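Example record

One chain of 136 residues, shown exactly as stored in the release files.
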Amino acid sequence: MTKNEEKYKIILFDGVCNLCNSSVNFVIKRDRKNIFKFAALQSEVGLELIEKYAIDSSKTDSIILIEDGKAYIKSTAALRVAKHLGGGYPLLYIFIVVPTFIRNWVYDYVAKNRYKWYGKKESCMIPTPELKEKFL
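Predicted structure tokens for this chain:
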């Protein structure tokens, strides 16, 4: 495990997806303990982590959480992220009791339609100088 993997929870996201980029900004604003770092799935770091954790990116291509040496995907990743945010968002973690296949059905439906509903960028988001430290 690298130093960043030990110290931070790493969120890999689709760097060209507007919904994913908005979600990253949402998490950054509510990451009061500064525990998250981010990398686009398409970035060099993202590709290295996908390979290291043997993640099939054809089956999950929107969000991956790497936490304590383990990779979480889809709805489980999203709920584990919510658990660490400020405000009432940790309450969403109660949905972890819903069977994974049901949670992931909803997640997959949104993920499949995200470009149609929210659009797509030509290239990955470039963080502002203030946010650069949040990205790997």
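Notes: The chain has five helices and four strands.
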